[in-house]
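Hi team,

Filling in the usual template for the complex we talked about on Friday. All components are listed, including any nucleic acid strands or ligand strings, so the model treats them as one assembly.

SUBMITTER: L.P.
PURPOSE: interface mapping
COMPONENTS: three
RESIDUES: 292
SEQUENCES:
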Amino acid sequence: MPELPEVETIRRGLDQLIVGKEISKVSFDWTKSFPNDEQQVSAFLLGAKIQQVRRRAKVLIIDLDNEYSLIIHLKMTGQLVYRSVAANFGAGHPNDSLIGQLPDKSTRVVLQFSDNSRLFFNDQRKFGWMRLMPKIEISNIDFFKTVGPEPLEPSFTWQVLRRQLEKRKKLKIKAALLDQTVLAGIGNIYADESLWGAKLHPETLVISLTARQIHKLYDEIVFVLKLSLDKGGSTDKNYVNHEGKKGSYLEFAKVFRRENEPCPRCGHDIQKIRVAGRGTHICPHCQKKPSD
DNA sequence: CACTTGACCTGTCCGC
DNA sequence: TGCGGACAGGTCAAGT
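RESULT (copied from the run log):
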């Protein structure tokens, strides 16, 4: 899924929907999706109330009103959908949704609240996970110790991006943008979109970027992330928000999933290539390799 | 150490 | 229609 705009959309939604609710029951069908043992669950999850929903990079943190939190990573195909009994009963497959009544075939974990509403963690590919962890241990997770700055925080300036890129001078710029220790929350979609905006070929080495190019790339990263957040994120195949609804950013995307369509800037055909092991979309005219 | 590749899973699409 | 292979938005671990 889910890159920063999608995870942030869910965070905002859940923060409105589940804060104050008391967890009354938990069930799961796949241990890797929820590795905690019975004892931890009954001691710290059952009976706890939701205090707040936070996000760092692509990770959601649901703080409980005790010393524990639920940490959730949706990886590629995870969904977190909240349903009251009535809403679930009425759920079909309207145009703005991908899912009907829950649980469905991909449901891995169900949190039930004392008012009988439920939060469903669905994940087709089973890469995602949810786990209960003491709040005090969260900052000790390697990922949180090394993850880079949040691009939508006011403290993230183009100079910060330049400094972060210093650490990965030998990488291709696309690989650097996907590296969560450089910058938090960018994935394949927004890497391609911001590189197109900055007219940079994704294989351009970081070391060869000028200050002006980094500044432009910074502007484009912030622009595409804010635009996507405004559009409720991107739905390619699986992503839905906390209500089970799709995001509409891809209608506004310039290159992602638009191979063989004309570049909106120059009209040349958009190509799909492979960079850093990932499918990558470029306009070969606007985004020249430095050697070309 | 810095960087690249394969593994983790299921589902879908494309070519033969 | 059936079947094999490639590919899909993310991160780790293992390999070079």
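MY TAKE: Chain A is about 30% helix and 20% strand. Chain A has a mean pLDDT of 96.

Thanks, L.
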